[in-house]
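A reminder from the course coordinator: this example appears on the midterm review sheet, so study it carefully.

Given structure:
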């Protein structure tokens, strides 16, 4: 009897002193690599603070640990700010203003910290992320900590025009980033580059329709002017210049964002009414040309459920996607290469002025459409913008997300990719988080 009591007492003591591991529901691939972006206006207790004094941490294995993050300052037009560029900063340089953004990856969040967990510096905000089916996860905004994560999800070399992430690598022409010299993807099941080139086209008429003009990549110079290099996202401020007879006839601002599994093209232009009056019925095309992606399957937001299949020639299903594939409100285009690489693209206007858009697609094994590195349109996939406003600010964003294979129905994961978890920011001074 005494032995039994002793054993029970020992078990009870072990249960008391064994630490309880706080678990969080694992994130699937779509959520894990999602960039969480929080408007700084939600971080009210640190508005006006030195940006360099702020950092982030998450609770992991009974410790608070630093996680990769970045704070991007924004300009008055709602784009990333660059000193010396045309658009002024919305706020004070080096100081957290309400227009700035805090960025980190969803996968770096963790369980809620224990009250006993200590950390260098002071916790100013607990940030709760509540995702559908994954419960609550947490990160912490910290002030005056000496601890920083050395993880960089994006690496960029301006000298080599090289971008590396843990998923893809792209090398540009140093003098013209419209030209890709190499594009490689992790675990892609082919020795070939999956993509040939990003193509930008403008077709228009001048002199009342007497002369037709066509601008392609040979007439476009995309020049990097300055970069914002961060561990979550690298942004390059570009000047896009369209050339005609050796002269620049149209200059456009573009910001090119590289994240761990995505590329984003943010295009903005202020079109003078006088210059716009010379162009009749302009059409703008932006598309991604594949390199011999035979057997690839493509779906569109409004197109038929049957996929377009790349085989070097157009068929009725492919034409149905072209005729009905996308519109302003439903713009996703999903492609599976069947080689351990999927990508899904979205189109959004970032200006009040908009135009109708259509799905652009070509499946032709023999067609040469220079400039390109490889013969054929296998396939050429993207968007057609059916016009340009008569004057004023006009812009759009095209984002391309990549995976070794999105799981499930594109009608579902297309929405999930762009849906952030519910975010609640708590102030440590009001909620005893210190």
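Designed residues:
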């Amino acid at each position: 009897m005494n032995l039994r009591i002793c054993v029970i007492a020992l078990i009870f003591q072990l249960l008391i002193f064994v630490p309880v591991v706080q678990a969080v529901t694992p994130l699937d691939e779509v959520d894990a690599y999602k960039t969480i972006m929080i408007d700084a206006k939600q971080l009210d207790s640190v508005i006006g603070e030195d940006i360099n004094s702020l950092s982030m941490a998450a609770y992991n294995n009974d410790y608070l640990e630093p996680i990769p993050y970045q704070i991007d300052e924004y300009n008055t037009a709602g784009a990333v700010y660059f000193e010396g560029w045309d658009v002024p900063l919305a706020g004070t340089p080096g100081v957290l203003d309400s227009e700035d953004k805090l960025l980190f990856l969803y996968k770096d969040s963790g369980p809620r910290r224990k009250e006993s967990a200590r950390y260098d510096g002071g916790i100013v905000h607990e940030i709760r992320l509540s995702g559908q089916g994954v419960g609550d996860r947490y990160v912490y905004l910290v002030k005056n900590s000496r601890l920083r994560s050395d993880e960089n999800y994006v690496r960029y070399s301006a000298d080599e025009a090289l971008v590396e992430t843990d998923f893809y690598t792209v090398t540009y022409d140093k003098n013209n980033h419209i030209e890709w010299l190499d594009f490689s993807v992790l675990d892609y099941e082919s020795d070939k580059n999956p993509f040939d080139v990003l193509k930008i086209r403008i077709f228009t008429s001048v002199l009342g329709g007497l002369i037709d003009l066509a601008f392609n990549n040979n007439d476009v110079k995309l020049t990097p002017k300055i970069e914002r290099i961060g561990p979550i996202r690298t942004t390059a401020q570009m000047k896009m210049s369209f050339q005609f007879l050796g002269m620049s006839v149209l200059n456009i601002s573009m910001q090119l964002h590289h994240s761990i599994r995505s590329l984003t093209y943010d295009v903005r232009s202020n079109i003078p009414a006088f210059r716009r009056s010379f162009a009749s019925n302009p059409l703008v095309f932006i598309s991604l040309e594949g390199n011999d992606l035979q057997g690839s399957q493509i779906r569109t937001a409004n197109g038929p459920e049957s996929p377009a299949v790349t085989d070097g020639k157009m068929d009725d299903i492919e034409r149905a996607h072209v005729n009905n594939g996308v519109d302003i409100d439903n713009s996703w285009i999903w492609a599976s290469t069947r080689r351990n690489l999927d990508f899904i693209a979205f189109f959004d206007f970032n200006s009040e002025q908009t135009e109708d858009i259509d799905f652009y697609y070509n499946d032709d094994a023999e067609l040469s459409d220079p400039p390109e590195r490889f013969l054929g349109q296998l396939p050429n996939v993207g968007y057609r913008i059916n016009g340009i406003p008569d004057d004023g600010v006009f812009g759009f964003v095209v984002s391309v997300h990549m995976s070794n294979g999105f799981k499930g129905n594109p009608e579902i994961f297309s929405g999930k990719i762009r849906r952030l978890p519910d975010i609640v920011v708590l102030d440590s001074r009001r909620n005893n988080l210190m």
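Residues 27-150+421-431 form one domain. Confidence is low (pLDDT under 50) at residues 6-21.
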